[in-house]
Design goal:
single chain, mainly alpha, de novo design (two linked rop proteins)
Length: 122
């Protein structure tokens, strides 16, 4: 079943954070899973937190800074989801979430490029 994605990035990043936390809760016990789960929880929830911060920034440079951080967190989240795929892929399917992380990187990248154009034009 395909999930419908909200157009509102605020809502989309919250939904993604919730799914990331659900993945973390499904990881098996053990030192490796706890390490990966902790890292994934941090980066996956930070995407939205930084996006929300960017959404309320007072200046374009501040907005850009928060969006860049959000993009970095999305890229890190992709990494941890790939680790889960390689290590526990037969038990935990994260392909859709890995795709969503990639889409978030692309969206954030486009937003950053647009802001950079606005900054240069100012």
């Amino acid at each position: 079943m395909e999930r419908t994605k909200p157009w509102d990035m605020r809502e989309r990043t919250v939904d993604f954070a919730v799914r990331v936390l659900e993945i973390v809760e499904r990881l098996p016990g053990g030192v490796g899973a706890r390490k990966v789960g902790g890292q994934l929880a941090e980066s996956g929830t930070s995407i939205g937190a930084n996006y929300h911060e960017a959404d309320t920034a007072l200046t374009l440079p501040d907005r850009r800074k928060s969006l860049v951080t959000s993009r970095k967190e999305a890229q890190e989240t992709s990494y941890w989801l790939r680790v889960i795929t390689k290590k526990w892929g037969t038990r935990i399917d994260v392909r859709a979430d890995l795709g969503e992380a990639g889409e978030l990187v692309s969206i954030l990248n486009r937003m950053i490029l647009n802001i950079e154009k606005q900054i240069r034009a100012a």
